[in-house]
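Milestone 3.1: sequence recovery, worked example.
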């Protein structure tokens, strides 16, 4: 479940290993590029953390963030 923190949507994902986490990041990258909306994220071994906000709207949560969050959720099946 995405959480609202400091005007950003946040979610942490945990995977079996680094390879699985990185594969997920590649899928997110293609999805985000297709939507022209890019996340702030980190990856440490099997954990990926994502923060979404719309920079050109003043770093607040907008419809674009909610739409990208929904697409990211579809990638985790």
């Amino acid at each position: 479940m995405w959480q609202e923190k400091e005007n950003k949507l946040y979610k942490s994902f945990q995977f079996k290993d680094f390879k699985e986490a990185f594969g997920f990041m590649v899928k997110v990258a293609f999805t985000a590029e297709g939507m022209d909306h890019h996340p702030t994220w980190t990856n440490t071994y099997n954990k990926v953390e994502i923060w979404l906000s719309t920079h050109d709207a003043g770093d607040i949560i907008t419809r674009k963030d909610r739409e990208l969050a929904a697409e990211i959720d579809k990638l985790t099946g």
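The mean pLDDT is 96. The chain has one domain: 3-75.
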